[in-house]
Hints:
Blueprint: H1 2-9, H2 18-54, E1 60-62, E2 65-66, E3 71-72, E4 75-77
Antiparallel strand pairs: 1-4, 2-3
Amino acid sequence: MYLANRLWNDEAGFIISAELMIVATVLVLGMLVGLVSVRDQVVQELADVAEAISDFDQTYTFAGVSGHTSTTAGSDFIDIVDFCDVADGQGVGNLSACVDVNAALNPAAGE
């Protein structure tokens, strides 16, 4: 009887109520959605940085130089369009740096 009295009067425990479970579930789902959004934005920003780097035009040309005792020929390099570059410069609204996220459906899961 003494043990039952002691357990009855113990207030150091924690009772998981239905409200606490609902609040915890909403918090976990909200955090999950927030992390997915952060992931997508980080990928987009990294793709924007990659596109900015690929947009550098590395074409150069210099003419020959002649001095009193020597001469050097000119040189040039033409930066060709890569497979992800937009040749006409109309890349507004396209996916950045050829980043395309495809989610395959799983027919076994009924999707």
